[in-house]
Amino acid sequence: MRALVQRVSRAAVRVGGATVGEIGPGMLLLVCAMAGDREAEARALAGKAARLRIFRDADGRMNRSLLETGGAALVVSQFTLAADASRGNRPGFSAAAPPDAGERLCLEFAAELAALGVPVATGRFGADMEVEIVNQGPVTIWLEVPQQGRAKTSAQ
Fold first, then answer.
1. CB under 8 Å to 105, separation ≥6 — which residues?
2. Is 78 an annotated catalytic residue?
3. Domains and CATH numbers, the chain
4. Alpha-carbon distance 102 to 96, whole Å?
């Protein structure tokens, strides 16, 4: 499972012009479930994101986590993070989980963040969304957790 994490001052997601999720300071998490991912990967990725030390401490250093700052998370599913553009100019998305599994795992990811104490807002799975962010820093980090129960290889 993978996520693109952005530290934000604020973020919102709209569907059909209506706001469906909105946060103040915290993280925007664009999340993609990969084929073969399970709940274990969703929970591991949520824990990693919640504990990622990308927020400033009193000395201005990136040394605090979302859990420590009390910030919120806006979770937006984005299967295009599974894109493979290695051949030609049209990306392929066959590495992404099927839609039903992708939705279930994105919801599990959001639920795990909430269970850890993070206020969570979400987009709408499968919808054509408009995402508005104010990236603070800017700070943008790629997170990925290997599938549980097997070693990650260069081919995965």
1. 1, 33, 37, 38, 39, 41, 42, 97
2. yes
3. 2-86+94-142 (3.50.80.10)
4. 8
Tokens of 59: 């000395």
Catalytic residue among 80, 93, 148, 156: 80
Provide the whole-model pTM: 0.91
Catalytic residue among 19, 55, 69, 79: 79
pLDDT tens digits for range 104-125 = 999 999 999 999 999 999 999 9
Q: Which of 6, 78, 109, 122 is catalytic?
A: 78
Cβ–Cβ < 8 Å for 141, 21: no
- Whether 147 is a known active-site residue: answer no
The pLDDT tens digits of the residues spanning 78-108 come to 999 999 999 999 999 999 999 999 999 999 9
Q: Among positive and negative, which fits the CA dihedral 61, 63, 29, 20?
A: negative
Q: Is 79 one of the catalytic residues?
A: yes
Distance CA 147, CA 156 (A): 9
